[in-house]
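Predict the 3D structure for this chain.
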Amino acid sequence: MRGGGGLSSVTGRIVDSTAFTVIVFAAILANAAVLGAETYSGFAARHRETLETLNGVFLGVFVVELTLRIASYGRRPGDFFRSGWNIFDFVVVGAAFVPGLSSNSTLLRLARLLRIVRVVRILPDLRVIVLAMARSLAPLGSMAVLTTLLLYVYGIVGWMLFGAEDPERWGDVGTAMLNLFVMLSLENLPDNLEAGMRIHPWSWIYFVSYALIASFIVINVLIGIVLNSLEETRKIEGERIERMAARAEQGAREEAEATDHLAERVAALREAAEDLERELAAAAARGAGDRVG
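Done. Predicted structure below.
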C-alpha cells in the first residue's frame, strides 16, 4: 500500500498514469533495438559510441522510473519490496552498478538483456501468462515424470522389436527414447510406422497405441494444466487488482477526511483568532474610556 499525501501522492499518480507506462514501454523496446543492433559487428563498430550513449540513457530512464516507484510509497519505501516484480526490477536495474560488471562484456550484455524482460511487468496479460506458467510448474513436473516413464517403457519395447533391424532409431534405449520424444509431435510417425511395418507387419499396434497415449492424452493433459493455471492466475490477478483499488480508494478517503479535519481545525483557529481580536478591541476601547473618565 502506498503512502498518502505530499510527494508520494504526486509520484503515485505519475507511476500509475498511462503516459508513464507508455514511456517506460517505449524505452524498453528502444533498448531492445539497441541491443539487437550491437549483434551486427559492422554496424556496432561504426556506431559504438552512439550505442553506448543510448544504453546509458536507457539506464538513466530506468533508474528514474525505479526511483519514482519507490518514492510513491512515501514513508514506507520497504513496501516496494513486497512485490516480486518490484524486486526483479530493482535487481535488474541495480545490476548495472555492480563493481566489475562493466569490465565483463558478457555479464554486462546479460544484465542489459534482463532489462528487456521487464516488458513482462508492463503488459498485464503477458504477466498473467508468465505467472500461470510458474504456477503450472509443479503439476507439469509430475507430468514430466509420467511422460519419461512412458517413453522408457515404449523405448524398451521398441528396442526389443526393432533394435536389431533398425539400430539408427532403436539401437539402444536412449536412442529409442529420443526417437519417441520427437514422435510426440507426430511429425516423424509416418516414417517410423512405415519402417516398423517392414520389420513386423503387426507393429502398427505399437505405434497407434503410442500415438493415442503419448501424443493425444499426454499433450492434452499438459495443455489442460496450463489452461487451468492460467484461469487461476487470472482470478488471483483480478483479486489483487481489486484489493489494490480498494486500498487506493481507502487511502484517498482517509486523505480526504484528513484534509477536511485540517480545514475544520483551520476554521476553528480562525474563528478563535477573530474572537480574540474582538475581545482585544473591546478591552482597548474600555481602557480608552476609563482614561477619558
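DSSP finds 13 helices and no strands in the chain.
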